């Protein structure tokens, strides 16, 4: 997806996104049109689409910056940190700042309900997961320090993050957004558990499994 944030100014983009979000929260995603959003924002439909590729991106407007944050984290990874350690630190930082994509932002419960009731928004979030996975794989492929399987590593990192975040969002909606601090603490513990499992393996290898890996031709 193209990042159109600089066309016409970031303030205009932010204002359009905020007005659209307010309308979506009030009436639901499918019942609000681009024409209404443009009218409320005092701009044309053309201006709306000069900043956003599609209607879904008006609500999920943090996706482009999130992708760039992921890329920057991998490009600036210190030599002493593994890829999974760097991504864990990014995930923890997003939780601490209550980034919307951590599922821990203040007032996110109504937002989640809007997404839940709109299949195209759910599909856009799934697409974002694939975009993030592709971004991680591309960065790892370009990093001479990384010698592992880039697509597999990227898929596992995204799976860890998505699984923890979806569980957090479900708890948040179920509780109506109360006890956010306690939920954030639990979220960060689960992130740690998930990424440590990715780093070190869920189960220790058995002698039989080690033999299979060391001598794969024996299974032929």
TrEMBL record:
Write out the entry's keywords from A to Z.
Answer: DNA-binding, Transcription, Transcription regulation
According to the UniProt entry, where is the signal peptide?
A: none
Which part of the chain is the HTH tetR-type domain? 10-70
Residues within the DNA-binding region(s)? 33-52
Q: Give the InterPro entries listed for this entry.
A: Homeodomain-like_sf, HTH-type_TetR-like_transc_reg, HTH_TetR
PANTHER family, A to Z: HTH-TYPE TRANSCRIPTIONAL REGULATOR BETI, HTH-TYPE TRANSCRIPTIONAL REGULATOR RUTR
Q: What is the recorded name of this protein?
A: HTH tetR-type domain-containing protein
From which source organism is this entry? Streptomyces olivaceiscleroticus
